Amino acid sequence: MTVFRTSLRNLLAHKGRMALSAVAVLLSVAFVSGTLVFTDTMNTTFDKLFAVTASDVTVSPAEADPQDESPDTGRPESFPASVVDEARKAKGVADAQGSVTSMGVTVVDEDDKNVGPTTGAPTIAVNWSPYELRSVRLVEGHEPRGPTDVVVDRGTADKHGLKLGAPLRTISAAGDFTAAVSGIVEFEVTNPGATVVYFDTATAQRRLLGKEGLFTQVMVDAAPGVSDEALKADLAAALGDGYRLQTAAEAADAGREDVAGFLDVMKYAMLGFAGIAFLVGIFLIVNTFSMLVAQRTREIGLLRAIGSSREQINRSVLVEAVLLGLIGSVAGVAAGVGLAVGLMELMSSMGMELSTRDLTVAWTTPVIGLALGVLVTVLAAYVPARRAGKVSPMAALRDAGTPADGRAGRVRGALGLLLTLAGGGALWAATQAEKAGTGSLWLGVGVVLSLLGFVVVGPVLAGGVVRVLGLVVLRVFGPVGRMAERNALRNPRRTGATGAALMIGLALVACLSVVGSSMVASATEELDRSVGADYIVQNQTGAPIVPQAQAAVEKAAGLDHVTEYRPVDVRITDPRGTVSKEWLAATEPTYPQDLRREVASGDLAAAYGPGAMSVGSDYATEHGVKVGDTLTVSFAHGSTAKLRVAAITADVGNVDNGAMYTNVTTARAHLPAERVPASALLLASAKDGQEAAAYESLKTALAPYPQYKVSNQADYKEDLKNQVGQLLNIVYGLLALAIVVAVLGVVNTLALSVVERTREIGLMRAIGLSRRQLRRMIRLESVVIALFGALLGLGLGMGWGTAAQKLLALEGLGVLEIPWPTILTVFAGSAFVGLFAALVPAFRAGRMNVLNAIASD
After folding, report:
1. What angle do CA 425, 426, 429 make, to 5 degrees?
2. Rounded to an integer, what distance in angstroms lies between the CA atom of residue 843 and that of residue 771?
3. Is the pLDDT of residue 855 over 50?
4. Which Pfam families does the annotation name (predicted)?
5. Cα separation of 473 and 416, whole Å?
6. Nearest 10 degrees: CA dihedral of 498, 503, 504, 507?
7. Cβ(507)–Cβ(797) below 8 Å
8. Given this model, what pLDDT does residue 388 score?
9. Cys-Cys link to 522, which of 427, 586, 745, 813 (CB 3.0-4.6 A)?
10. What does residue 105 show for φ and ψ, rounded to 5 degrees?
């Protein structure tokens, strides 16, 4: 109890000095807790949605892929209405309703603006039925009664200002059609951002599936006392093969699996950045407790002199750490809930609706937050606590502060150098790897070892690096600059730890900048080398191009030719008899002009002749295929053909690797008309001298189809750059948390350093140092520490990025580009970070009373 009271008294006595460490714990715990609350809330939202929308048993065509929202044909798989009647007559069935659902549609308003979501959620077109009324309620107008009526959800109506009577055009693979808004519905549970439109059953069948009398699903309800599993078995017996049956639980599990990938990526990415923030926070806490222990050396010596044991002193410091961790963690958990609500509001503003009514705070969230916060704080305080326990009673007779252990410094330098060399060796091994898997392992080892090496060797490097920075940055400020340099060099361990906190965040920034710039440069070079087409037309969501949009492209003025690209699922039997599932790119003879592929053997133009195809070099090597061999190709939903291998393309670069080509006419000859896939993309080239006119003509032709984008090569490169840039900006935003914690570390170090040097500051002021000079000295010290961390971090990050790019070269991204403007901007920005971090400590130092400071002990 005495130890606890002593720890509590010390914590309260130094609460101001502990505040920033508590804030670091708070921020890190808040990020973890907020991530867990946010993802748990999303899971709750989807669980409620799946529970409401799932019938006892759902019957779908066996060919329907639950993972594919936009089939290659653009039309969902369907079966005749007689299946609904058969299901209704099955044993254990209370009711069965036919459903028409399509996610391969685009809905536009009268200005040809897409009213669908921009968050990746689908636009869903369904038929109006009693089943739909389980999840929605009509709040305005009436249900769809004919081909000119459409009902929309409230979220979409509000977002796009749709009122009753507003015309909406629906674009599907079966054609375009226009209907007026006849009603608006609200969901009984939260709709996570999808746009849903409802048509009467006959219109939905005709306009979405191509003809009446078809359904995509049957929603079956069990009779009283019949379990879902029993109903599923009865339906299987009644319907026979050719159908996929799911109970409500199985449908919910499938739905969760669909969204699990997105949620898991987001969850673990955010937790990873929270882990980086925790790592940076460790440096802050270590520095705080190290400086407090050093400042309390005489006090600890007195406690030892009056009978306190080493274990008691050690426990006292660790109890302070526990209390600090608890305070920061409790506040962090509360802040995490607020952060989750903020993320929900942000997602709602972007179109993904998440209701705070579904806010889910599982009991594990505060437990994990508290455990992490306390554990990290105690681990960070362990070494300073051991150092405090080693203070002897004789320290009570000495001034506060102990000199650095020279032998420990030499050991640290040797260990840091060893780790750094080992990390560098692993990074070099990664650059020499012939397989990406092996190289990735070496890269991971190299990143960890080199980071540990720089952290350990940091205090040793501080002396030399700070002196060099002093010559370049500080000496121009005269004596004040030299004093700032000496202050930074006074305790290399402290300077090294403070700089290391900033180093981690900036190393990751530099690494990702190098990787991102190299990816863009590599892709741009590949585009210049491989793509001969003037324009590329594709759906921004990856869905196929509907026939009417393709027809509009083909009619555009100024074009020399348009090449379609249709992916066909096939099973290929090689000459050895091995069967493999592949996809065959059905294109036109102009394709080799639009996408230049290196040919290993044969003639690619011949692959577009009757009964011919090409294969990639990897497939040819693996299956022992050579030019002239005949492959047995079984077309999904079609017939089997014997196709001769006319060419083998070299699988080099990163465009269309592994692709097999044949003529579109060959695919059409072996597929029913309704099973021919829609074009995944279109490539077009302009007539000589008409490039600008053709570009504008294409844009005009596709204006009624806003889901498709026309890109010339300059547009495509810019889009690629923007996509990588947006991804990097998100990552930089998340890394900002770690950098904020690092800045807090600089502030804390300077603040405690000012307290430590109170008497020295008073003496300097007494002999003529002005307040302005004093503040400048502290700001310059902060700047040089920040630049020291930035120099190490940027150098380390560029090394990581260079090694990572060598691995990307194995995947065809062979251009290394160092983004010097970004690197130099970050380095210069670090100086401003240092200035900002020193504002409060410098202000407090300047306000010190000279006499009180001189009298301070």
Report:
1. 90
2. 9
3. yes
4. FtsX, MacB_PCD
5. 27
6. 180
7. yes
8. 67
9. 813
10. -120, 160
Q: How far apart are CA 296 and CA 14, in angstroms?
A: 11
Helix-, strand-, coil-residue percentages of the chain, each rounded to 5: 60, 15, 25
Q: What is the mean pLDDT of residues 592-609?
A: 91
End-to-end CA distance of the chain: 29
Contact indicator for 24, 328 with CB cutoff of 8 Å: yes
User: Do 777 and 484 contact (CB within 8 A), yes or no?
Assistant: yes
Contact between 162 and 152 (Cβ < 8 Å): yes
Count of helices and strands (H, E) across the chain: 25, 24
- Are 187 and 219 within 8 A, CB to CB? no
State how far the Cα of 205 lies from the Cα of 172, in Å rounded to an integer.
Answer: 12
State both tokens at 534.
């003037």
Question: Could you give the angle at the alpha carbon of 400 between the alpha carbons of 395 and 403, nearest 5°?
Answer: 85
What pTM, to 2 d.p., does this model score?
A: 0.80
Using CA atoms, how far apart are residues 242 and 269, in angstroms rounded to an integer? 41
Structure tokens at 30: 């808040």
Q: Which two tokens stand for residue 746?
A: 């600089």
Mean pLDDT, the chain, integer: 84
**Residue 789 region, left (φ>0) first, then alpha (ψ -120 to 50), else beta?**
alpha
**CA 815 to the chain's CA centroid:** 24
Residues paired with residue 545 on neighbouring β-strands, in sequence order: 679
Alpha helices in 587-630 (DSSP H): 591-594, 617-623
CB 492 within 8 A of CB 463: yes
Q: Residue 667's pLDDT is what?
A: 93
449, 487 Cβ separation under 8 angstroms: no
